[in-house]
Amino acid sequence: MGVHEAVRRFGRISADRGLRVHGLVVHQRGAAAVDEHWDLDLRRDVFSASKTVTALAVGLAEAEGLLSRDDPVLRHLPQLAARAAPGVELVTVDSLLRMTSGLTWRWAAPDADHPGDPAVDVLAGRPVATPGSVFRYRGGSTYLLSRVIHACSGVDLRDFLVPRLFTPLGIANPQWHRCPLGHSLGAVGLCLRTSELAAFGRLLLDSGRWHDHQLVPPDFVSALTSDPVDTDGHVATGAPGPHPDNARYGRGVWLCARDDAWRMDGIHGQVSVVLPRHDACVTVTAGYPGPTSDVLDALWSVVVPALG
């Protein structure tokens, strides 16, 4: 079965399973992209797939000498040190990327409304374990990375990425939801079309290269999946229990349990899956209320086998 027929079959499977898929893009080296939509290709929140984009900003800032992944976070946010809990001085940029900071603060409001400074509250909680040792998946960690990018570059995360990634990828005037203080949320809130999320997947597949331009250092793209952490039975939102594809986490990306694949991943079915064995990436956007692993299972049932 060819990729085009597999995509059509995926559409039927998605409808049968109620996955509410908006669009699917398959990019494979040496072949024309397959771009199929079952809804308008509008910009929508890609939720936690935003975390991968924030991670890329960290890699770019490191390449420019603005920070090191080994830096303590408070080195970049010294104005918050007086109100930080004991143990926070050990939290590094890298532990935020890997979700091993030990910080457990969550946004209380679904629209990220918050009185005062959210970073103060993230840092006010004592780490539940020595930073770097235990996985705790929290959007507050990635929000701190957004604040670090602003602190070391002098511009907001979104504005930092416009000339470095968004414009080269052809993503014009991207919007990123912000906290009440005006900082891009980092963890969620980046609004992209399916095709624009797919551009990030292709960038990752090609080790940070876009056509003739190296946008992200290849060693940093490799670092996204190196030394993954065990997620200790992590249960994704809407899931009845742990799933093998959620068992390992890198730096802003999830490592799949099949085909040596790894992915950007956001709630409600936003994924861009990098498949090095197949020289391919597969991107889906959806409005599915269940676990994103259901979308992954549908992809592996028909689309991935068609890649050869």
Task: Describe the protein.
The protein is an alpha+beta fold. The protein folds into two domains: 1-42 and 193-308, Beta-lactamase (3-Layer(aba) Sandwich); 44-191, 3-Layer(aba) Sandwich (Beta-lactamase), CATH 3.40.710.10. It has helices at residues 3-17, 50-63, 73-76, 93-97, 118-124, 139-153, 157-166, 194-205, 218-223, 292-302, and strands spanning 21-28, 34-37, 44-45, 175-176, 190-192, 209-210, 213-214, 229-230, 248-249, 254-255, 262-266, 270-275, 280-286. Strands 2-1-13-12-11-10-9-8 form an eight-stranded antiparallel beta sheet, with helices on both faces. Strands 3-5-4 form a three-stranded antiparallel beta sheet. A hairpin with a 6-residue loop joins strand 10 (254-255) and strand 11 (262-266).
Strand order of the largest sheet: 2-1-13-12-11-10-9-8
User: What is Rg?
Assistant: 19 Å
Poorly predicted spans = none
Class based on secondary structure composition and strand pairing? alpha+beta
Distance between the termini: 10 Å
Layout: helices, strands, pairs:
Elements: H1 3-17, E1 21-28, E2 34-37, E3 44-45, H2 50-63, H3 73-76, H4 93-97, H5 118-124, H6 139-153, H7 157-166, E4 175-176, E5 190-192, H8 194-205, E6 209-210, E7 213-214, H9 218-223, E8 229-230, E9 248-249, E10 254-255, E11 262-266, E12 270-275, E13 280-286, H10 292-302
Antiparallel strand pairs: 1-2, 1-13, 3-5, 4-5, 6-7, 8-9, 9-10, 10-11, 11-12, 12-13
